[in-house]
Design goal:
The protein is α/β, with parallel strands linked by helices. The chain folds into three domains: 27-219, 2-enoyl-CoA Hydratase, Chain A, domain 1 (Alpha-Beta Complex), CATH 3.90.226.10; 223-374; 387-448, Beta Barrel (OB fold (Dihydrolipoamide Acetyltransferase, E2P)). The protein is built from 15 helices and twelve strands. The strands form two sheets. Strands 1, 2, 3, 4, 5, 6 and 7 form a seven-stranded mixed β-sheet that branches. A five-stranded mixed barrel has the order 8-9-10-12-11. Strand 8 (399-402) and strand 9 (409-414) form a beta hairpin. Helix 2 (43-58) packs parallel to helix 3 (75-87) and helix 3 (75-87) packs parallel to helix 4. The N and C termini lie far apart (127 Å).
Length: 450
């Protein structure tokens, strides 16, 4: 069969049209990077937002989509998120499916588009502490400026943005004096602070004219979940218990090393997540270790227990407590006194519990089957080829002399041989005679000789 030239041209046009339509169909697929911001705006929120923006830029997503439901959070974190949203070239859409209050309102107006579920709200952005108390004017002034400049960048009315913060501002037919502005969904639409109402993400994308899309959801990683678990106040309290209990137990029974190892691991697990979250600063961690150093000096260098020991305890407690609270070098206004008191309560409760546990269960723990599995306690007997200077029972009941202070651990000397010793009488000064009550492994137990 022979096709005419006109038929050939027609078929060619049909094929080209089909290819163009097919190409447009594939080209209309949009990449959407989805980020959920729910709960308080905290350091973890900033970390996952950075990850979402980076993922959107790397994958060349068309839209960074934020699904939001928050009553607010830390201002400095919200400001960091706001700045990142303004600087990225990726189009940002926020979908408020319930609340965008305070810090959430600032983040929302930093996005290119705002959509809200019916019954949602946006506004109420006055700066408060953890107890809900309004902070001083300098914080309100800073927040007002942030809201104004963010609204201006996105082509929104800056006066309304300021009204979210300032109760004294009057906006004709919108906001009376004496009330902080909060918009419902319809009010936000009427005042051009919302681009439309929607009941789902799909409805938002449909309103944006997007029908073919691929959603890349940013989920918290295993590391994110571990950090969130470790900074939980209850877990922090357990870690503090292990830190302080390990130090106390090591002082009571020096040379074993296991208690010190537990304390060191707990210290890392306590400070590292808080540091990564931006809560623990360098000076707070240094404060803790200075306190620890002072206690060591008091125990092993200076007799008795005085200013060094007391100062050390205070610095350690402060270092642990301050690390749990957002602050600006002793300025705790943003976090509030309530959260600071909570952190101190956790630390002090853990300290008291650590001492109680160590005193009551310390000796029984050393004799427990679990402890014996992790501590080397085999005797090196002479009939097995080992050379021992003295039989384990030969020094029990004899009188030696303390060659270091025992508080309660130290060293004694008997017949020119030195022994690790633990006092059953509390503090014993260097040079005092001691009565050896018993011997266990490489340590002997003593009391003051009468």
């Amino acid at each position: 069969m022979i096709l005419s030239r006109s038929h050939f041209k027609l078929n060619t046009l049909l094929i080209l049209s089909f290819l163009i339509i097919l190409n447009q169909s594939f080209a209309s697929d949009k990449k959407i990077t989805l980020l959920e911001i729910k709960g308080d705006i905290e350091p973890g929120t900033w970390r996952i937002t950075k990850k979402a923006i980076q993922a959107a830029e790397t994958s060349k997503s068309d839209i960074l989509f934020i699904q939001m439901n928050t009553y607010g959070g830390l201002l400095n974190i919200a400001d960091s998120i706001r700045t990142a949203l303004l600087e990225t070239k990726i189009k940002s859409i926020v979908y408020i499916d319930n609340n965008a209050a305070s810090a959430g309102a600032l983040i929302s107006i930093a996005c290119n588009k705002i959509y809200m579920r019916k019954g949602a709200s946006i506004g109420a952005a006055s700066v408060v502490n953890q107890s809900g108390e309004i902070l001083p004017e300098k914080y309100q002034s800073y927040m007002r400026a942030l809201m104004r400049t963010t609204a201006e960048r996105r082509g929104r009315n800056p006066l309304i943005a300021e009204g979210f913060v300032d109760p004294d501002l009057v906006i004709d037919s919108i906001k009376p004096k004496g009330k902080v502005l909060t918009f419902t969904t319809q009010e936000a639409i009427d005042n051009k602070y919302c681009d439309g109402a929607a009941e789902s993400i799909a409805e938002v994308l449909k309103a944006e004219g997007i029908s073919n899309y691929e959603i890349i959801k940013i989920e918290p990683t295993f590391v994110d979940k571990v950090i969130a678990f470790l900074i939980n106040p209850a877990v922090s309290g357990i870690l503090i218990l292990l830190i302080l209990g390990g130090i106390y137990f090591e002082i009571q029974a020096p040379g074993i090393g296991f208690a010190l190892l537990v304390s060191a691991i707990a210290t890392i697990l306590y400070f590292a997540p808080l540091y990564l979250e931006g809560l623990a600063a360098n000076w707070e961690i240094i404060l803790f270790f200075i306190g620890l150093a002072l206690i060591i000096v008091e125990l092993f260098v200076i007799p008795g227990f005085g200013i060094f020991g007391i100062s050390g305890i205070i610095l350690m407690v402060c270092g642990l407590a301050f690390s749990m609270v957002m602050n600006n070098f002793f300025n705790f206004s943003i976090s509030g006194s309530g959260k600071l008191m909570n952190s101190f309560s956790i630390v002090l409760a853990a300290l008291i519990l650590a001492i109680i546990v160590s005193v009551i269960f310390g000796k029984n723990l050393m004799k427990s089957s679990v402890f014996r599995k992790i501590v080397l306690e085999d005797e090196q007997k002479s009939d097995q080829g080992y050379s021992v200077a003295v039989s384990p029972d030969s020094i029990t009941g004899r009188i030696g002399v303390a060659i270091t202070d025992l508080r309660p651990a130290g060293k004694i000397e008997l017949d020119g041989i030195r022994y690790e010793a633990v006092s059953d009488d509390g503090y014993i000064s260097k040079g005092e005679n001691v009565f050896i009550t018993k011997q266990e492994n490489v340590s002997v137990f003593v009391k003051k000789a009468i």
